[in-house]
């Protein structure tokens, strides 16, 4: 009998103590029956773990899997939760994230419900989250298999002789980039890129055009989220920085830390290949 079968056979009775990624020890049902997810990437993970019928609430930004999330109750945005809607759903487990959700909302919800929080700044944190969430929702075997597949895929990414020096833009007005101690920064390093703004104190610092020009960049990466950079923005950056490669990147594959990580290594390998070819052709 697998761990999942054992959890299912025991029904909803019983509780267990677990520790979330913020170091909080919380008591959760042995087999949760009414789950609310407050983060898009973790919502997708829960569906991929097989909790389709147990998820009762998601945020308006939860878009995957599209055919399933549309059937679930919306409980506001990640940073503007509708607490009344959550109370109406009477969850027995809420899963959130330290960066994505507001502290005051989480503290208020934790007074009434078990709230398990992730805190993710590296790929290792993401893999740990997948394993821990699997334990919390009684899907340990499925989660461990998924985590192993993701870790193995990333380990196969080739190392570059010289990392590409890049800036990863997440916002336009004001110009903001991913800095140190961010999941994006770790992902850049995993695929052979050096973050030119990793020395800043803020995690998502504002930068000026002059600072970008002086950074000695091989490439400027414009993410599809949270700001939706498009081709017109790529063209504008290319005009502004004619000696630097400017590339639009899929923010979901570079910054989502749930089961979508399965698709990230192949995307990154292709991205690096494209940038290297463009750099070679421009020399």
The percentage of residues in β strands lies in 15-25%
Distance between the termini: 60 Å
Find the CATH topology of the largest domain: Rossmann fold
Rounded mean pLDDT score = 93
- What does the largest sheet look like? 5 strands, parallel
Shape estimate:
elongated
What would CATH call the architecture of the largest domain? Answer: 3-Layer(aba) Sandwich
Residues in helices, as a percent range: 25-40%
What's the tally of helices?
A: 12
Your description of this structure?
The protein has 283 residues and is an alpha/beta fold. It has helices at residues 3-9, 40-48, 66-69, 83-89, 103-110, 123-136, 140-155, 183-190, 209-213, 231-240, 251-255, 264-282; strands at residues 15-19, 25-29, 35-37, 55-58, 73-74, 93-97, 115-118, 164-171, 176-177, 193-195, 219-223, 245-249. It folds into 2 domains: 3-153, Nitrogenase molybdenum iron protein domain (Rossmann fold); 164-282, Nitrogenase molybdenum iron protein domain (Rossmann fold, 3-Layer(aba) Sandwich). It is built from 12 helices and 12 strands. Strands 5-4-3-6-7 form a 5-stranded parallel β-sheet, with helices on both faces. Strands 8, 9, 10, 11 and 12 form a 5-stranded mixed β-sheet that branches. The chain has a two-stranded antiparallel ribbon with strand order 1-2. Mean pLDDT is 93; it is low at 4-12.
């Amino acid at each position: 009998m697998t761990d999942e079968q054992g959890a299912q056979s025991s029904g909803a009775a019983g509780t267990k103590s677990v520790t979330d990624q913020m170091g909080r020890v919380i008591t959760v049902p042995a087999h949760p029956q009414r789950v609310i997810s407050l983060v898009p990437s973790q919502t997708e993970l829960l569906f991929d773990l097989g909790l389709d019928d147990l998820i009762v609430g998601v945020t308006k930004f939860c878009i995957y899997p599209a055919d399933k999330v549309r059937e679930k109750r919306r409980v506001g945005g990640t940073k503007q939760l509708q607490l009344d809607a959550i109370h109406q759903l009477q969850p027995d487990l809420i899963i959130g994230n330290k960066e994505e959700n507001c502290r005051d909302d989480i503290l208020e919800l934790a007074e009434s419900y078990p709230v398990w929080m992730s805190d993710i700044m590296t790929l290792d944190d993401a893999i740990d989250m997948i394993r821990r969430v699997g334990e919390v929702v009684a899907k340990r075997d499925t989660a461990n298999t998924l985590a192993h597949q993701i870790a193995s895929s990333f380990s196969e990414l080739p190392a570059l002789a010289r990392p590409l020096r890049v800036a990863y833009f997440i916002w336009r007005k004001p110009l903001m980039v991913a800095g140190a101690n961010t999941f994006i920064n770790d992902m850049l390093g995993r695929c052979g890129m050096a973050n030119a703004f990793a020395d800043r104190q803020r995690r998502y610092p504002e930068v000026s055009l002059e600072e970008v020009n002086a950074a000695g960049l091989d490439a400027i990466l414009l993410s599809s989220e949270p700001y939706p950079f498009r081709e017109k923005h790529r063209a504008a950056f290319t005009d502004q920085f004619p000696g630097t490669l400017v590339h639009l990147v899929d923010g979901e594959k570079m910054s989502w830390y749930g089961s979508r990580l399965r698709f990230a290594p192949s995307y990154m390998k292709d991205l690096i290949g494209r940038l290297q070819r463009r750099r070679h052709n421009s020399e």
